[in-house]
Design brief:
about 120 residues, mainly alpha, 5 helices
């Protein structure tokens, strides 16, 4: 079971945050393109960083605590999932707080409406 340690941590992150989508009606998954545009650049940068560090011998992963599935360059699939799951959990938490506080953010229709009204007048 030790080889599932990393996956267990990721599962804990998902279970600890995905309920926020439904409890606070954050609509994070409905706005999948926005979510993708948030997570993809972060994941790309950190995957590149990890691949560089692995290639230089500065970074490694304990094979006993990962699934053993690797991508090119020796990057464990577990690590790639980390770069998706942790930002997802962060976005879900942010959106849950935002929805309870009523804070506008980004490209929300509530922040766009005044700009449209001003353009008409």
């Amino acid at each position: 079971m030790r080889h599932l340690t990393y996956v267990g941590v990721l599962l804990f992150c998902v279970l600890g945050s995905v309920w926020l989508e439904y409890a606070f009606r954050t609509r994070v998954f409905r706005r999948w393109l926005r979510l993708l545009l948030t997570i993809a650049p972060v994941a790309a940068i950190f995957v590149g960083w990890d691949l560089y560090a692995i290639s230089r011998g500065h970074w490694s992963f304990d094979p006993d605590q990962t699934t053993g599935l690797t991508l090119g360059g020796g990057l464990p699939v577990d690590e790639l999932l980390f770069f998706i799951v942790v930002p997802l959990a962060s976005v879900l938490a942010f959106e849950a707080v935002r929805s309870t506080r009523g804070w506008p953010a980004g490209d929300d229709s509530t922040t766009d409406e005044p700009a449209r009204d001003e353009a008409k007048s």
